[in-house]
Specification:
This protein has 523 residues and is mostly helical. Among the domains are: 36 residues, Irregular (CD2-Gal4), CATH 4.10.240; 186 residues, no CATH class. 53% of the residues lie in helices and 5% in strands. The strands form 2 sheets. A 3-stranded mixed beta sheet has the order 1-2-3. A 3-stranded antiparallel beta sheet has the order 4-5-6, covered by helices on one side. Helix 7 packs across helix 8, helix 10 packs antiparallel against helix 11 and helix 19 packs antiparallel against helix 20. It is globular. 39% of the residues are buried. This is Zn(2)-C6 fungal-type domain-containing protein.
Length: 523
């Protein structure tokens, strides 16, 4: 019998009628727990069903699907129904136990992800994308859970791989298992997309970002770029309301809010990492970046960080060593330089008002160093003479000194976020002072790490080759003044094979018209 608050009984005449016999049916397992206990039809509203909230009850969320069918022709309502996620406060309470019904290996991988991977991926920053959101969602979504299992396995194999020769066999076996788990994750993601389409778009985007992280970790940058390109394209279509209006994720929905406030900024950060590498990949990054004609004052480090991400992703050319040859681009460079100045001004104002420990924190230091590096490269791209970098010797020295302190305070071996490896790379690439240059290379070698697309040992290997090419035949180098313009490398072209730790490089010296012979470097 329906409860009174649903209007199941309407006056005395209803009581006089004989009770109808209900037809046999299978109870739905998709409704929230409260509606199932009350034996009423749940409306499956998100994030909490209206049947509960309209009567003052607390909706406890929905059960996770136990299986995703890979047969697109199967009439399985569980794969077609929008599965709602409980509210975040309920999910946070679930995190400590992570009580998954999984086999021992999957449970071990999830545990490793929660206690190691999620912490390391954020690098020097505090990000609840990995430590909170991903773990929340993977409890409810099979495709996310499978990606997390694969990432945990691959990350653990990465630790074994860097733990000495005795761990290499274990690392290889674990890496193969991770690849198999990842293949299953891709299969589940495809099933999710086939079943949901533009609905549950937040899950699709989150899985795509996990794919980028997996491919970066195993060194397949081409595959990572493919996933990142897809994420950008999907975000762009959705943001421009080109997605199908029916059964889609609306901008005003809880999932839409999650995309706008969490996933889109995270995707912007991934774009920045990809564009910071001096290799010839192109990304339609402009499709998701907000136009920042004026930079507003910051109220938090997080706001300053997102503003810097957007600015840097716009400022960095496809290769950071490129020169602006088209004078029509001079105005754009000037606009970016103006925004860099605005950002620095507002960031300084914010740091002056925040607690001292926050102002001197690692995230604040790294943001200032990235801003400095971007300003140097942006200024230099207007000049075709490599000696322009000699003017920034004080800045290069400061970057190395502050980076050394950051490295001494971190034991992270792999992160997805911006870090110090590209900063040291560009110091050693463009600063020809022998002491500062060699110190930057030494730091990359002595503190081996991977930061998104950057491998410190691979970067050091390339830099040592460039150092030898530039200083060959010059005798004793005492300062940057001893390295003349014709000896300096102005362009480098690279083809990387990170999985086998191999890179093919060719160089072009300033004033030269032909490239050097290709050389294969290994580490």
């Amino acid at each position: 019998m329906a409860s009174a608050d649903e209007g199941g009984a309407q006056g005395g005449s209803a009581l006089a009628q004989p009770r109808r016999k209900r037809a046999k049916h299978t109870r739905s397992k998709l409704g929230c727990g409260v509606c199932r206990i009350r034996r009423v039809r749940c409306d499956h509203a998100r994030p909490s069903c209206e049947r509960c909230t309209s009567t003052g009850r607390t909706c406890d969320g929905y059960p996770a699907p136990t299986e995703i069918s890979t047969d697109s022709s199967a009439d399985n309502s569980a794969t077609k129904e929008l599965v709602s996620r409980p509210r975040s406060q309920n999910l946070v309470m679930m995190l400590p136990g992570l009580d998954f019904s999984l086999n021992a290996q999957a449970g071990r991988s999830l545990h490793f992800f929660q206690h190691n991977t999620a912490l390391e991926f954020a690098g020097y920053f505090t990000s609840d994308l990995w430590s909170n959101l991903v773990l929340q969602v993977c409890r409810r979504e099979s495709c996310v859970q499978q990606m997390v299992v694969a990432l945990g396995l691959l990350h653990e194999s990465f630790h074994h791989d860097h733990g000495g020769a005795k761990n290499l066999s274990a690392a290889k076996a674990m890496r193969q298992k991770a690849t198999n788990e990842y293949a299953l994750g891709i299969k589940l993601l495809n099933s999710h997309i086939a079943a949901q389409g533009w609905a549950s778009l937040d899950i699709t985007l989150l899985c795509s970002m996990l794919c980028v992280a997996f491919e970066w970790l195993r060194g397949d940058y081409v595959a990572a770029q493919t996933h990142l390109w897809s994420s950008i394209s999907i975000l762009s279509q959705w943001n421009k309301k080109k997605a199908p209006p029916l059964n889609g994720t609306s901008l005003s929905s809880p999932s839409g809010h999650l995309i706008q406030t969490r996933l889109r900024p995270a995707c912007t950060s991934l774009v920045l990492q990809a564009r910071s590498m001096p290799i010839h990949f192109t990304l339609p990054w402009h499709l998701i970046l907000e136009v920042q004609s004026e930079i507003e004052p910051f109220q938090s480090l997080q706001q300053a960080r997102h503003s810097l991400d957007v600015l840097l992703a716009d400022a960095l050319p496809e290769t950071m060593a490129a020169k602006v040859r088209n004078r029509s681009n001079y105005k754009r460079v000037g606009d970016i330089a103006s925004r860099l100045t605005q950002w620095s001004h507002h960031f300084g104002d914010y740091l002056a008002t925040c607690p001292p420990d926050e102002a001197s924190s690692a995230p604040a230091v790294i943001m200032k160093l990235w801003h400095t590096t971007a300003r140097i490269l942006l200024t230099a791209c207007l000049n075709t003479d490599e000696t322009i970098f000699d003017d920034f010797f004080p800045e290069f020295t400061e970057i190395v000194e502050k980076t050394e302190h950051l490295l001494s305070s971190s034991s992270t071996k792999f992160s997805i976020d911006i870090g110090v490896v590209p900063l040291l790379y560009y110091v050693a690439l463009k600063c020809r002072h022998p002491r500062v240059r060699r110190q930057a290379i030494r730091m990359l070698i002595e503190s081996p790490r991977r930061e998104a697309v950057w491998d410190s040992l691979g970067a050091a290997c390339v830099l040592q080759e460039i150092l030898q090419v530039e200083e060959n035949g010059l005798g004793k180098i005492r300062s940057h003044l001893d390295v003349p313009s014709p000896s300096r490398v102005c362009h480098m072209y690279a083809r990387m094979d990170m999985e086998n730790r191999r890179i093919r490089v060719t160089f072009l010296k300033q004033g030269a018209t032909t490239l050097s012979e290709e050389k294969v470097l290994t580490w």
